[in-house]
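Encode chain A's predicted structure.
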Amino acid sequence: MKRVHLKATGMVQGVGYRMFIDRVARELGLCGWVRNMPDGSVDIDAQGSEQAVGELIRRAAAGPSRARVASLLREELPPSDEMTEFSVRM
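Encoded structure for chain A:
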């Protein structure tokens, strides 16, 4: 089990980025959440198999067609037993 916290910067709000991440994470069977931040970035906390997390990172760096991801900061975290599904946080 692997868990990461990602911070996407660039043109990532108002372009469907959170919904894109939600769809990808659910498709990959990941648990966690995604939310917009006041500074214009998007935070992602995701947990699952190493392969699924790696694929999420790859797709988060590209984003949906209208997004322009300038950077994707990554921090590994210890797995959490409290994460059971993926959600979009407000």
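The mean pLDDT is 97.
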